[in-house]
Please model this.
Amino acid sequence: MRFSTRAIHAGQEADPTTGATIVPIYQTSTYTQEAVGKHKGFDYSRTINPTRLALERQLAALEGARFCSAFASGMAAAAAVASLLSPGDHVLIGEDVYGGTYRFFSQIVARYGIAVTYTDMRVLDGVRAALRPSTRMIWLETPTNPLLSLADIAAIAALRADHAPQAVMVVDNTFATPYFQQPLALGAQIVVHSTTKYIGGHSDVVGGAAITDDAALHERIAFYQNSAGGVPGPHDAWLTMRGAKTLAVRMREHARNAQAIAEFLERHPAVERVHYPGLPSHPQHDLARRQMRGFGGMVSFALRGTAEEAMEFARSLRYFSLAESLGGVESLICHPARMTHGSIPRDQRERRGITDTLLRLSVGIEDVEDLLEDLRTALDHLSTTAVRSMHPSSTAPM
Ligand SMILES: *Cc1c(COP(=O)(O)O)cnc(C)c1O
Model:
C-alpha cells in the first residue's frame, strides 16, 4: 500500500458488529465479559479502546512502522518516550527543540537523576563529542521551530550506531509529517508527534503519538501508556484519525502555498531574510532535498524595521490569524520573540536568530492568491512608511 492509501485504509476495517464503514467512536470505559476473563480482547479503555486502536494502526502505517501508542497530547507522548530513561542515563537533545520539550526535559526529567545536555544538531562533530558511554537517548527535531534549520537524520543515526549503540534515537516529526519525511527509514528508532498539528490538521483536537518498529521499545512505551494513563479519549482519537486521512492532500497544498509565499517574501524589499527549506538560499537546501520529499508549510522571515512594526504587521493581516500552534488548514502568524519563545532570555534568543522582527507563518491551504495579496498589502504599507522615514523627501513607492 502506498502512502495516501495507507492514510485512508490502514486500521480502518468496517466495524465487525454493524458493518459501519467508518470506525465508530467507542465511547465506553469498559466492556462486558461473557465469563470471568472471557472477552473480545477489550477489557478497560485506559488499556485498550477500539477507536484509539484504529488510530494507532493508521499512524504506525504512515511512518512505515508496526507499532504506535497514542497519547492525550504531544507532551504526553514525549513523557512516555522519556520513561525509557533511568537514573544515571544521559540524554542529548537538540538545542532548538520545541519549548515544551525543553521545559519537560530541563525541569522534570533532569530531576530524576538523568543528565540532560543540549547541542546544535547541525554540527556533527559537536554531536559526536557530546555522546557519552551513558548516553541512552538522542532527541531531535528537523526542521526546527521557528528557524527551520535541519538535522541530518541519517548522519546522526550513523554516529549513534558507531559511538553510542546503546542509545535510542528519537525524532520529533511534527513539522515535516510522515508524508514528507520518514525518520525510521533513515535510522531513527522512535518517532514522536504532536498530532495536534498537521496530522489532526484542523486545529480542533490535541493529541500525540510515539511510533516505532522495535517490538521491545513498543512494549515498554505501551506499558507506560497503560501505567501512567495519558491516553486520548475515543472522540479525540476519532477526530485525529479523520484528519489524518487527508494528510497527503493537505501537505501537498501546504507546501505548494508555502513555497510560493517564501519566494514572494524573498523578493520583497521590506523583508530582510526568509527561512524555508525549499528555497535554494536555505543553507541546508541540499540536505532538505535529500532527506525530505517536500518542504512543509512553515515559513519564517525577518522584516526590516522595528519590533513594533513586526507586531503591527502580524496584527494587520486578514487571513493569517495571530496565534500560536500550527498545522491547521487555516493560516496563522506568530511573533516568536513575544509569543512561543518569550521565555528564552533575550541574548540567548537573539544569538539563535530569534530576533524581535522575526515572524513565523503556518501557511494554510486557502487560495494562495488571497494569501499573497494579504501579505503584499501589509508589506507594501510597511515599506512605504520605512522608506519615508529613511528618506523623508522620497515619495516613490517600493
Ligand atoms: C506542539 C508541539 C509539541 C507538543 O505537542 P502538544 O500536542 O502541544 O502537547 C511537541 N513538538 C513539536 C514540534 C510541537 O510543535
User: Anything to note?
Assistant: The pocket of pyridoxal-5'-phosphate is lined by residues 73-75, 98, 100-101, 141, 145, 172, 174-175, 194, 196-197, 206, 208 (CB under 6 Å). Confidence is low (pLDDT under 50) at residues 392-398. The longest strand covers residues 135-141. Residues 247-394 form a domain with the Aspartate Aminotransferase, domain 1 fold (CATH 3.90.1150.10).
